[in-house]
TrEMBL record:
GO CC terms of this entry: plasma membrane
Entries under PANTHER family matching the protein: D,D-DIPEPTIDE TRANSPORT SYSTEM PERMEASE PROTEIN DDPB-RELATED (PTHR43163:SF8), DIPEPTIDE TRANSPORT SYSTEM PERMEASE PROTEIN DPPB-RELATED (PTHR43163)
Keywords of this entry: Cell membrane, Membrane, Transmembrane, Transmembrane helix, Transport
TM ranges: 97-118, 130-155, 253-279, 299-322
InterPro entries to which the protein is assigned, alphabetical: BPD_transp_1_N, MetI-like, MetI-like_sf
Membrane topology: Multi-pass membrane protein
Chief localization: membrane
Family per record: Belongs to the binding-protein-dependent transport system permease family.
Residue ranges annotated for the ABC transmembrane type-1 domain, each copy included: 91-322
Organism: Massilia litorea
Gene3D superfamilies: MetI-like
Protein name: ABC transporter permease
Molecular function per GO: dipeptide transmembrane transporter activity
Cell compartment(s), UniProt: Cell membrane
Length: 330
């Protein structure tokens, strides 16, 4: 346990060091972004001293680590708010979107992968492989724009940009930051329906991307199991094919699938920026991108730390689930 905690701390520290020093060599001047290009030299120096960027890099990093130890991620240049407050504000929107997307992706991707593996080389296998290849290789932002054009502009089946229509914005009290949950808790079913209409399309597009990855990996894992001798033995004994596939072969890939789904979920939490940009979704990815373009390193470092914690946590959860699904891991 101590070794795992030490490894986790070193991983996060290495991530912070790398991000901090890359941020200092980026061709973006945070001082200039703060004071503007028309500021004189004295104003520039005053702003640099206030931000602390006039000190040596190692001094800046030490100061940042000291502040981090007290739970302070600094102040964002982009919003003027504490980075912790900004992340707490935008992160639930991404969690809600990514969670729905990974649920849709897993519910579709796992059965499709199993279906393709059991029909290797056949028409069904080829169809699933084409769908997976398209979902994985076609740019997400293209799917996003085409989705808006077809399902919003032409058919009117879904909502437009943002998380909810303007007439419902601010009507529901913020309890969890998850709009579907907050509207349901408030009993405002009109707002809930409107939030569903807005989240459906971006979640389905992200879910398609996840489905492509999950189905491909499920197919590969199942093909490896279906070629094993225990599967042949089960078939020779006369077991129904569905029991051979789902009760024998599929059970042996659950541990691998847990890792795949966890990694896909972590990727959605920190990599949904393109969909958030297309749909004006006020989430974590959009906040990180805007901060990076402005050279707001306090916000960037805070976001990177959160991303690192997410992946470390998902790995720890996966390890715990391994012991549940595979007793041999104990």
């Amino acid at each position: 346990m101590r070794g795992r905690l030490a490894s986790t701390a070193l991983t996060l520290l290495g991530l912070l060091v790398l991000t901090f020093f890359i941020g200092r060599v980026m061709p973006v001047d945070p001082v200039l972004a703060l004071v503007g290009p028309d500021a004189d030299a004295s104003m520039y120096k005053e702003a640099a001293a206030r931000l602390g960027v006039d000190q040596p890099v190692w001094v800046q990093f030490g100061r940042y680590i000291a502040e981090l130890g007290s739970g302070n991620l600094g102040t964002s240049l982009l919003t003027g708010n504490a980075v912790t407050a900004d992340i707490a504000r935008v992160f639930p929107a991404t969690v809600e979107l990514a969670t729905l997307a990974i649920v849709l992706g897993a519910l579709a991707g796992v059965p499709l992968g199993v279906f393709a593996a059991t029909r290797r080389g056949g028409l069904g296998d080829n169809v699933v492989r084409v769908i997976s290849l398209s979902g994985y290789s076609v740019p997400v932002f293209w799917f996003g724009m085409m989705g808006l054009l077809v399902f919003y502009a032409w058919l009117g089946w879904v909502g437009g940009s943002g998380r909810i229509a303007l007439e419902y914005d601010g009507v529901v009290p913020r309890a969890t930051g998850l709009l579907l949950v907050d509207t349901a808790l408030a009993g405002n079913w009109a707002a809930f329906g409107n939030a569903v209409k807005h989240i459906t399309l971006p979640a389905c597009i992200l879910g398609l991307h996840s489905m492509a990855f999950i189905s491909r990996m499920t197919r590969s894992f199942m093909l490896a199991q279906l070629s094993q001798e225990y599967v042949l033995t089960a078939r020779v004994k006369g077991l129904p094919e569905w029991r051979v596939v789902w009760q024998h072969a599929f059970r042996n890939i659950l541990v691998q699938l847990l890792t795949i789904v966890a990694l896909a979920y972590g990727g959605l939490l920190e990599g949904a920026v393109l969909i958030e940009t297309v749909y004006a979704w006020p989430g974590f990815g959009q906040y990180l991108t805007n901060s990076l373009l402005l050279g707001d390193m306090n916000a960037v470092m805070g976001c990177v730390l959160i991303v690192g914690i997410i992946f470390v946590t998902l790995n720890l959860v996966s390890d715990a689930l391994y012991k549940i699904f595979d007793p041999r891991m104990k």
